[in-house]
């Protein structure tokens, strides 16, 4: 299953996730569905300003497969 969503998280807001203090993140998809996944998968998308953009989360049988930044 593919879930599309946007994120706008400053680097300061993301630090607790980056340090592992908070393990999971919950996002609301473009269709209004809430999806929870391990925050560690966002680390590679962290830039100096934080994490911004449109993403596609892919799962199979409720297991994480990939997280791709679309723009």
> What Rg do the Cα atoms give?
12 Å
Number of helices: 1
Unreliable stretches, pLDDT < 50, 5 or more residues? none
Question: Helices and strands, in N-to-C order?
Answer: EHEEEE
Strand content: over 45%
| Number of self-contained structural domains | 1
C-alpha end-to-end distance: 20 Å
Give the overall form. Answer: globular
Number of strands: 5
Could you estimate the helical fraction of the residues in percent? Answer: 10-25%
What structural class results from the helix and strand content? Answer: mainly beta
Strands in their spatial order, largest beta sheet: 1-4-5
Average predicted local confidence, pLDDT: 96
Main β sheet profile: 3 strands, antiparallel
Describe the 3D structure.
- With 71 residues, the chain is mostly beta strands.
- The protein has one domain.
- It contains one helix and five strands.
- The strands form two sheets. The protein has a three-stranded antiparallel beta sheet. Strands 2-3 form a two-stranded antiparallel ribbon.
- The protein is globular and about 30 Å long.
- The chain starts with a strand and ends with a strand.
Summarize the topology:
Blueprint: E1 2-10, H1 11-18, E2 24-28, E3 34-38, E4 50-60, E5 63-69
Antiparallel strand pairs: 1-4, 2-3, 4-5
Condensed summary:
The protein has one helix spanning 11-18, and strands at 2-10, 24-28, 34-38, 50-60, 63-69.
């Amino acid at each position: 299953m593919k879930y599309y969503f946007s994120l706008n998280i400053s680097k300061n807001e993301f630090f607790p996730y980056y340090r592992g203090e908070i393990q999971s993140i919950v996002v609301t998809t473009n269709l209004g569905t809430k999806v929870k996944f391990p925050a560690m998968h966002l680390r590679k998308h962290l830039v100096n300003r934080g994490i911004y953009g449109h993403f596609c989360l892919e799962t199979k049988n409720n297991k994480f497969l990939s997280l791709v930044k679309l723009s």
